[in-house]
Amino acid sequence: xxxxxKFLIIFLFLFPAMASASSLRLVSDRDAYGPGDNFAxxxxxxxxxxCVNVISVNLNYPNDYLNLIDFIEGESLINLWxxxxxxxxxxxxxxxxxxxxxxxxxxxxxxxIPGDPGKSNLLARLIFAIPGLIISDVERDELxxxxxxxxxxxxNDGFGTEDNLETLEIKLKVLDSPALKSGEWKNQISxxxxxxxxxxxxxxxxKGVFENQYYINFYTTDKQSGIDRYEVLEIKPxxxxxxxxxxxxxxxxxxxxxxxxxxxxxxxxxxxxxxxxESTIKVRAIDKAGNERYVEYVPxxxxxxxxxxxxxxxxxMLLFIAGAVIILILLFFLIIAIKKxxxxxxxxxx
Length: 350
Hints:
By secondary structure, this protein is α+β, with helices and mostly antiparallel strands. The protein has six helices and 19 strands. The longest helix has about 35 residues, at about 315-350. Residues about 1-20 have low confidence and may be disordered.
């Protein structure tokens, strides 16, 4: 019995050392920056003992001395973003000093690739700026960027098990004058001449999404400067971008809105405006350097015919209802006229 207890005690002490424990850390090219400097902070993952597939990062930074100005995922190992900071999120982050992102790796990420000279463990690159004129109630000689406790890494074990996680913050000294002549991140963006990766447009219709209306999914990556935004255009045959449509008399009667085909900034999933599927759907992915990748999708003929059969019944139903209402009104006035005539005759007889 004593041997069993002894074994259990040893096992319990050894188990934490044997458990999986990934680590996240923040690194920068320098350990000190001054007013007017723009610099990058890389978010890296290390010591991956078991493959991981979901990473949720939440960071805190002193927003009186630091402004987040860009989020670059171009060289990230993450290829499926669940939450990625755009300009609105960056503005909000600078207001409260917190930034977060969530991404996944289908199939799992199993550690740094041996022999890879690049940063195959890079999650994201944050671009910070120290204002030339700092206005703060606190005088700082050190800037600290920390991982919040809500940061998580989930294992690729089919159960989404949370990994034991170690985090390493970064501390940067504050100089009296700028340490850099120019921003490295600007050079990285300006040198990007490559379009985003090819992608496809997927047309979908689900009862639990947009009340069973048609929508599209699309996604791509850009391994240089990163994706800046997506734009969608729905355009019908014989129409031109930016040109107002002409309405038929029937469309005017039913109050149909003017149709103006134009590019619109979009996020996935995107609800289609043309639920009749009469339009060609175009999506363009634009990276931070302005390079664009266009993809075009024409809804299948059988789907358009199916939708047309349903939608074409609408005008006839409206006509039927309008006709019925008109007939009822005419009958109403006819009944009133007959009653008045009878009353007149009755008065004459009296």
